[in-house]
Amino acid sequence: MLLGKGLSTSCLAEEVGSATMLPLSEWDPLGCIRYHIHSPFLFLWKDKLSKSQFTAKAMSDFQTSTHRSKWIFTRHDLLEKYQVSNQRAVRTLHQYGSTRMEVDIDGSLSYPEPQFDITQAEKHSFPKPLSTEEEQLMRVFYEHKIQEVCGAFGFPHKIQATAITYFKRFYLQWSVMEYHPKHIMLTCVYTSCKVEENHVSAEELGKGIQQDHQVILNNEMIVLQSLGFDLIVYAPYRSIEGFIDDMEDFCRAKDDTLQILKDLQERAKLEVDKAMLTDAPLLFSPGQLALAALRKANDVHTVVDFPRYLEHVYSRQHSNHNISELIECLNAIDHSVYFTLHSLFKVMKLKIPTAKDMRHTDRKLKSCLDPSSQEDSKKREKKSKHKLRKSSSTAHGMPTDTTL
Asked: pLDDT digit string (tens) for 373-390?
């Protein structure tokens, strides 16, 4: 499996060799009740796995993965990372007059050339930088775009989740003012397809969404470097499948209940889709996210007695922690998902921002990346206002040229 220009997954990361394995721990809600507590989950579903799959589990375990050791954070850590990258971009903007980072073909970076003589800086107005809140909104907008692109191509949920996770991890290292998320989004989808062995060429992906495929390839190395070449991602969607299988046994499901469980599974996937637009995947394990989504979905479908099911799951653990800690964790996920989206969109009903909603922020972003675009935009706006005044004057029978 190749990544970009002759790069194979086998040479990129220590974990990549297990990309096609079926890790049992993706179903695990208790692999870490707190992400810093090691509390292994028993192999509750090992009878449903073939011997080879069960052996593969030992080689690809969330507990020992870089996903858990390097990419699960505290909320304080996340805020600090976002602030650091935002402040670095602001300093670059003030120093160079632009924030655009140039990426060479070998992945090396260079800062922009100063847009003007620094001694004349006072005569120029700097573009206004994005705030950390505006950056967050921009990230959410393009994470939703990833979901739309993956849906349009008919990609599995695993590819979508991996692409969004890559995108999130990338912008823990960089500000959106340094790399436009529209371009990074496409490279994340492209890389995700290759890692998950659902290969789509850059040309095909670019053509499908009317974007230059060369942009996808040009950003590939900087994306891989920013991910630390940690390409294996554990997604909540497979965890949901495992829990649904277990619920069938728990409920002793018959034909009518099986259909309701299937509805529960689809509803839970939608809840995970919402969670993927927040910081929750960077704060909690995939199993915890899956269990929280199922609990939320069960509030609608009421398939199982969920508190009793949690006790049933927890009774099979050899853990020093009690079930109240798990419930506290699930409550924290609900809080994180709902209040993050609510505070972003300022409405009670969850609503993804549209391109029109993002127009002002996108103009600010473009002016940071390329200040000349700000001047061009002002000229177009001035020209448009002039045409509007001219049209209005003509409509009222007034002369188009007046002297004050």
From this structure: 555 444 444 554 445 454
